[in-house]
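Appendix B, record 7
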Amino acid sequence: MELATIVTVVLLAAALVLAGLLAADRRIPLPLLVYTGVLLVMTYGGAGFFESKPRFLLPAFPLLLPVAALMAKARPRTAVVVTGVLAGLSYAYGPYLLLASGVAP
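Structure tokens (predicted):
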């Protein structure tokens, strides 16, 4: 299985988990939950290349609210390391998609 497909499956599964965490938080306003739900329906229900589905999650910033709450409670060193690792993975994955995978990002 190609790396782009694996990353897509992991990102879509993570989006479902984060949506569940977001829905469980009673402090989140209903319009924000509806906005996120519509974006997820468009992402999972849309046609097209499977590997391009993560780009539909870019405007789904409310999915990151549970992650931001956890990072706010973490020690500063832990938050910096986690952010650095995720930024490094993102930095490496972009050129991989562009130059090696043969799949349109």
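Remarks on this record: The chain has a mean pLDDT of 86. DSSP finds four helices and no strands in the chain.
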